[in-house]
Amino acid sequence: MLCYHCGLIETVKRFELRILAVCMLLLGSAAVWLLLTRPVYRIESDFLEREDKRQIDEWLRDKAVSPVGDTRRRAMLALSRIGNPQALELVIAGTTDPSPRVRAMAAFAIGQIDDSTVLTKMNRKSHPEAFQVLYDLLSDTERVVVSYAVEALGKLGRPKQFEMLLRTTAPLPITLAALVRMQAKESAPWIVELLRSDDQDVRRAAVDALDRLEIDFDKRLTKKLIERSRDRNAAVRVVSLKALARAKSTPGVLRAVFAATKDRNTQARIQAYTTLGLLRPSGTEVEIAAGLQDANINVRIAAVRALGARGDRNSLQLVRSLRFQSDPLSYAAEETTAQLADNDDDYFTGFTGFPPEYQSDAGKESFLRALSILGSPRAQDLFRKLKNFDGRSSANPDSKSSQPRFESDDYQRISRELNRRLMVHTTIGVFELIVHYDKARLTAEHFLNLVRQGAFESQRFVAVHPTLVVEFRAARPLFQARFPDRVRCEVNTEFFTRGSLGMFADPKDTGGYRFFIALADIPEFDGRYTNFGRLISGDNLISNITRETKILKITGI
């Protein structure tokens, strides 16, 4: 009998376990169903709408204390994008959240809202608790939290407190960027020691920090920078050459910079000639002119500009012979000739009116700029005539528009979109981009809408800073679909590195038609402009982009 009862009890227990397992399976299925239907895209769309309208309401406040960690983290990001000081109480509370991802995003939000540059523009004072809660996070057990706290403290300023950043677990490049934002010049001795780091990213960030902090380069530090100009990493060599432009033009510095004009890396050669233009070494016009034979067009342009910075007659003769060709090198030579010319005869010999070789937009721009640089009565008279004759539209593509904002259905649709790969066909080749909806959904949607309408077709790259960014713009479409003419900037935690796709911001925290591809790491852009994609093929090609390069079409939608 006892065995019978024992067996019965065991059967009941097994039955109960099965019932429990079935219940758990049903609950899990219900949770998955909820996540795959309403909550995922509907909650994201609600966040997007509040970010777009810069609206803090009870719904958002409730999500900031949601029992779901990912929802709380997303709420912190939304509050950082809204940027309203009313959000500080919520994000400060988020710094004590049990989830490290939420604490990290709360720190990021404090840095965005209480950024010292923003406070100065808005004539607003920092929140009294902001600095202290970030300071407390420096001892957090999670490195990601410490990293975001360091980054945020850099934005808050307060250079006198720089020493607190030197002993944290944050990656050193993040710490160095924060010291630059603080303008903590007193940290220079500590930064100098990092020039010997085994980590190439640390060496690059250290050189960049010393340059951006405008630290005086004595003989000892100049020698270290010369060593770094021969670094095995190209990015380190580029920033070192840039920094040497502020050093004294000693034989050792000049030898290092001239050696870099033969560097295998294109950007290093561009920076070498740019630095030579700033150092202005005498009697070296022949050596600089050797750059006119470089295979890369932007290196040749940098050599022309270096000759123009010298201000001597030999350079004028070299540059003047490059004019009146339908290519970017000639356009650069046109501006440089005006810069070197001592009188009207130096400039106007050989022509009297608008050169027919400069018919392209880039050519016209350079010619008008050259006349403006020359500044003589004759040049100014021709400048006015050409400006009046120019029939191009003077409408500002970034002017205020009456286009409506996104509507509720749009936010829901956009919240379900996936990342897109695009092929950008240009006059010099094809490169590939990926547009990240998951990083900045409204910006990604706006960009792709412009692509669908052909707004980039036949548009050229309007500005080229060959060691920083190339900028391109969309034309205002003739037949616009219903979508906002401008979108809110969607700051995120993505770093701007070489190949990042970004949208420039306008004064009122919006963007619309100005986009760029980063050609280097640009820490000063982080958290300032919208980072919504990146280059995934064609890295060599983007180094050849000039103001004459055009986008033929973009495919892959």
Give the topology.
Layout: H1 2-36, H2 38-53, H3 58-63, H4 69-82, H5 88-94, H6 100-113, H7 116-122, H8 130-137, H9 143-156, H10 172-182, H11 188-193, H12 200-212, H13 219-228, H14 234-244, H15 251-260, H16 266-279, H17 285-289, H18 297-310, H19 313-320, H20 328-340, H21 344-348, H22 361-374, H23 377-389, H24 408-414, E1 420-426, E2 429-435, H25 441-452, E3 459-465, E4 469-473, E5 487-488, E6 500-503, E7 510-511, E8 514-518, E9 530-537, H26 539-542, E10 550-555
Antiparallel strand pairs: 1-2, 1-10, 2-9, 3-4, 3-10, 4-8, 5-7, 6-8, 6-9
Name the average pLDDT.
Answer: 89
User: Strands across the major sheet, in which order?
Assistant: 1-2-9-6-8-4-3-10
Unreliable spans are 31-38, 393-403
In CATH, the architecture of the domain at 418-555 is Beta Barrel
> What is the H level of CATH, i.e. the homologous superfamily of the domain at 418-555?
Cyclophilin-like
Alpha-beta content class: alpha+beta
Strand content: 5-15%
> What is the CA-atom radius of gyration, in angstroms?
28 Å
Cα distance, first to last residue?
75 Å
State the helicity in percent bands. Answer: 40-55%
By CATH reckoning, the class of the domain at 418-555 would read: Mainly Beta
Shape by Cα distribution: globular
Largest sheet: 8 strands, antiparallel, barrel
Number of helices: 26
CATH topology of the domain at 418-555: Cyclophilin
Count of distinct strands: 10
